[in-house]
Amino acid sequence: MNDVGGDAPDPYLWLEEVEGAEALAWVRAQDEITRAALCDEAFEADKAALYEISTRPTNIPFITRRGGRVYNFWQDQEHVRGLWRRTALDEYRKPEPTWETVLDIDALAREEGEDWVWKGCATFEPEHRLGLVSLSRGGADAVVMREFDLVAKRFVDGGFFLPEAKGGAAWLDADTLLVSTTLGEDAATASGYARTVRRWRRGLPFAEAAMEFEASESDIWAAAFVDREPGYERVFYRRQITFEEGETFLRRDEAEPVRIDLPLDSAHEVERNWLLVKLKTEWKVGGPSYPADTLLATSFSDFLAGGRDFAVLFEPGPRRVLSSFWWAKTRLVLTVLDNLASRILLAEPIEGGWRIEPLAGLPDAADLTVWPLDAGQLERTDEMLLSISSHIEPTKLALVAADGAIEVLKEAPSAFDAAGLVVTRHEAVSIDGERIPYFMIGARDRDGPRPTVLYGYGGFSVALTPGYLGGIGKIWLENGNVWVVANIRGGGEFGAAWHKAGMRQGKALSHDDFAAVARDLVTRGVTTPKQLAAYGGSNGGLLVGNMLTRYPDDFGAIWCTVPLLDMRRYTQLLAGPSWIAEYGDPDKAEDWAFMQAFSAYHNLRPGRAYPPILLVTSRRDDRVHPGHARKMAAKLMALEQTVFFYEPDEGGHGAANKEQAAFLSALGFSFLRKTIAGEAETS
Predict the structure, then answer these.
(1) Whole-Å CA distances, 533 to 438, 482, 642
(2) What residues are labeled active site?
(3) Which of 439, 582, 567 is CA-nearest to residue 500?
(4) Is the Cα torsion angle 264, 268, 273, 274 positive or negative in sign?
(5) Which helix H or strand E contains 645, and what residues bound it?
(6) Domains and CATH numbers, the chain
(7) Using one digit for the tens of pLDDT, what is the confidence trace for 342-401?
(8) Is 233 in contact with 257 (CB distance < 8 Å)?
(9) What is the predicted pLDDT for the residue at 4?
């Protein structure tokens, strides 16, 4: 039992013991009950279809170029854990390219008796011969790092090795790493991330690695970033104070690092002698005042010397915001969301200013994502990769040449029959009068109310933009049902103000936004409350958990994955302290005063009827504690509500592989069929 801040003792605290014998026995019993109820013939058919879609040999192999060759991580039905492989770009252009396997994760897992999940490889450039491979056990955020020889295609005997921990490393030179890790005494912050940066020379025990930089225990994390651009070689340290605020320092030889004097909540990038700053709050500096969401540019050396003369590269407008920015070799690439429509701009420094032009030849009604073709800094070009997608049109991968020419390299096959389907945009009016946009995907000639899933997130400035629905289209839309995506406050769809309106005191308001969309769907005749399900994960799990407790009469089912639900104790569980800026601090009375309104776990009431709920988490989730879902399920069961709970042994904060992803998705669709889609009532 635990009495927190005068609250009643929590009778389900024992379920927070992730590996506790009693807790695991409870989990496994609930897993069996859920399997028996939901894993029927239709489930098996859905799982097979979803797995086939995700593992088709004709799916797009996304690439990154290193040392003149393109690399891809690939999973299919023969390679469940995956292959890291490479080929030449010209070979990649062929319909069926020939690949060279660099590392077979399935074979490695069998050989070593480990449940390895690939988490990437950071290579040392320009040779790209040596790399640091990160491997997770079961999909957790914590990784094992091992030095790998990309030419010999094997791990380096006696090379760099770090046991399982959260953190990362950057190559300072071929024999030196700057390591941020939770390994060692006092090496972790309260959020469970790396607190220090150490310089580790090849051949030395890690315990003897020199301390380079330290953050406070109350900070979220510390890290180092190495710039090896010829003529601009330098090292930056980052101290992330909260999820929203942090400080960056420039390392100096034999002297204290220099703090880059920018607003704590700004985003910035240093490239050669350019400093770019994206604001999240208004900033008055050097005379002018710049509004939030503005992108500024100045000389980095001038800035360090005290200059504050900025060029404005992007100005926000009503529902027009800068989504991302990054440097190619000679130009800056900007992605703009203009009322949720993607636009790509290219900014090039010229004599006396900047030239900013749109990238020509792009479709209007699509979600556009651009990123560098090259993994490293030293071989970077102005070539970039472009993803083009929509809810009902398969994704295309294109190469954008330095001159702006667009070449489609690959196109994903259709996963479902989109004939007769249409994507429409609508707006609901929230409780305070704000207009909340949402996408609706369904049959053009819909006849009466249909089973509908309403998906949302609403947090951490994450923008929900159109992406191909793939398996959702096959299992849900092809059967005449409707899928809806709500762009509620707390997300990043319309910039800093939209995010801030859904933080802290506004978190409950973002949930009201979601409920307003639900009611608008009913008012428009799209669905009925009994045919409407709320679906979300992580922060979205908190969202739909609040639909259960605050708006139970508006939904026929709740599909809730890897959720936060107990907001009284979330800061005491795993990475919880890192999210205080988003939610508030429950140990402060003034914060708990508003937080308790959206702590779903605390707002369950005896005698009230709640819609059926499916709660899914993972024993290997070391980001959002599985105790949230476990305790919510147990409390609902005690209130004699309809609840299904499922917790696999692997998966982390997401699925460990495509096989597990297909299983979990099929489980959710089976739950929907048995609740909102017309099958017999659950028991």
Answers:
(1) 15, 11, 14
(2) 538, 653
(3) 582
(4) negative
(5) strand 643-646
(6) 16-51+415-673 (3.40.50.1820)
(7) 999 999 999 989 999 999 999 887 899 999 999 988 999 999 999 999 999 999 999 999
(8) no
(9) 37
